[in-house]
């Protein structure tokens, strides 16, 4: 059985081994093309959702000045529609809950203690509770800037995050990478995913969707799902050797059709077996960026590989690499100075 964490979607593997996906509602189902996360799948899902669900929900009338009214305007806005499909999916789930919880209330009446009460209703999931605060902050700005509503200070601005996992995106230690690589020799999917993640610096969803048609023998072309940036990434010799030695039993380089979550689950299970469950798939993206910085790459060169749009994040990687290099040089100079002092008469 295929596990799909998407509302109204049912997935299964047919007798030929192909994954099939359907939009299901009240005993009826409509076939969905492609795989979750793909552009064609997202377009079909959004169309069916609008046709079958949104119209039914719109029967609940929200006055323009209510939180529900602002949410409906936001869902129809270019700001929301321009986001990556997966981001829209995640936001939509939270936006629907916000309408259920406080949709009929006037947005101008929203205060900090109301935001905390809303957040409380989304616990025990701290990540969902935090996302609700982020979305409320976005809606408040949208209402002021795009809808010209007269609102005071943003009530969600000063609320701290609940979800604390400082090691969530930490780079993998070298010993974990070596142990993982040794452990997954019998697992072709995880074995191929490791160098793809480590040497392209891409998000797991982008790696999961990479096809052999994107590999030209020298590099891999990638259209990032989140940013829509188009990249061509030259292959590191380690990655090229892995690609050239791989058997092409699927159109997908990892060997099977996966969503980003699906491939992350494969890697997470392998990490659990080697006792390194504190590491995450996204951590390898940080490994890639740090390795580029330590190799002396400029922020522009790092961005050309990873597709980062945040210069602050890239400069963070570069600064960390510079600190290590400068600290090493400083100690070397200190040792030289000490040796001269000892030799002095």
Question: Would you kindly provide a written description of the structure presented here, covering whatever features stand out?
Answer:
This protein is mainly alpha-helical and 345 residues long. The chain is 53% helix and 8% strand. The protein has helices at residues 39-57, 67-75, 78-81, 85-102, 112-121, 126-145, 174-183, 188-200, 204-208, 237-245, 260-273, 283-294, 299-306, 311-343, and strands at 9-13, 19-25, 28-32, 219-223, 230-234. The strands form 2 sheets. The protein has a 3-stranded antiparallel beta sheet with strand order 1-2-3, with helices on one face. A two-stranded antiparallel ribbon has the order 4-5. Helix 5 (112-121) crosses helix 6 (126-145) and helix 12 (283-294) packs antiparallel against helix 13. The protein is globular. The mean pLDDT is 88.
In N-to-C order, the SSE pattern is EEEHHHHHHHHHEEHHHHH
Strand count = 5
For CATH, the homologous superfamily of the largest domain is named as Intergrase catalytic core
Low-confidence segments = none
Structural class, by secondary structure, is mainly alpha
- The CATH architecture category of the largest domain equals Orthogonal Bundle
Distance between the first and last residues' Cα: 80 Å
Spatially, the strands of the biggest sheet line up as 1-2-3
Radius of gyration: 24 Å
What is the CATH level 1 assignment of the largest domain? Answer: Mainly Alpha
Tally of individual helices = 14
- What value does the average pLDDT take? 88
What is CATH's topology name of the largest domain?
A: hpI Integrase, Chain A
- Beta-strand residue percentage: 5-15%
Overall number of domains: 3
């Amino acid at each position: 059985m295929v596990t799909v964490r998407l509302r109204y979607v049912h997935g299964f593997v047919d007798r030929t081994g192909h994954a099939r996906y359907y939009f299901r509602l009240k005993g009826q189902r409509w076939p969905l093309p492609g795989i979750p996360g793909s552009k064609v799948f997202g377009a079909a899902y959004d169309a069916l959702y609008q046709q079958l669900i949104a119209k039914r929900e719109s029967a609940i009338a929200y006055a323009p000045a209510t939180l529900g009214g602002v949410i409906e305007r936001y869902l129809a806005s270019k700001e929301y529609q321009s986001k990556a499909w997966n981001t829209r999916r995640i936001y939509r789930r939270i936006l629907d809950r916000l309408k259920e919880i406080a949709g009929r209330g006037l947005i101008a009446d929203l205060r900090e203690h109301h935001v905390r009460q809303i957040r409380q209703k989304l616990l025990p999931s701290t990540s969902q509770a935090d996302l609700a605060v982020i979305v409320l902050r976005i809606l408040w700005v949208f209402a002021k800037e795009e809808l010209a509503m007269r609102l005071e200070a943003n009530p969600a601005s000063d609320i701290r995050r609940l979800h604390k996992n400082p090691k969530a995106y930490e780079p993998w230690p070298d010993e974990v990478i070596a142990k993982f690589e040794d452990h997954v020799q019998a697992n072709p999917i995880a074995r191929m995913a490791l160098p793809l993640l480590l040497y392209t610096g891409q998000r797991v969803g982008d790696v999961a969707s990479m096809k052999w048609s994107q590999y030209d023998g020298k590099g891999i072309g990638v259209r990032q799902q989140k940013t829509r940036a188009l990249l061509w990434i030259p292959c590191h010799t380690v990655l090229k050797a892995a690609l050239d030695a791989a058997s092409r039993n699927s159109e997908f380089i990892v060997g099977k059709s996966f969503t980003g979550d699906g491939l992350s689950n494969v890697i997470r299970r392998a990490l659990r077996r080697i006792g390194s469950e504190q590491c995450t798939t996204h951590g390898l993206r940080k490994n890639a960026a740090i390795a580029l910085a330590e190799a002396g790459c400029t922020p522009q060169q790092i961005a050309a590989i990873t597709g980062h749009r945040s210069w602050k994040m890239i400069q963070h990687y570069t600064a960390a690499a510079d600190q290590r290099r400068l600290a090493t040089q400083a100690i070397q100079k200190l040792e030289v100075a000490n040796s001269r002092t000892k030799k002095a008469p």
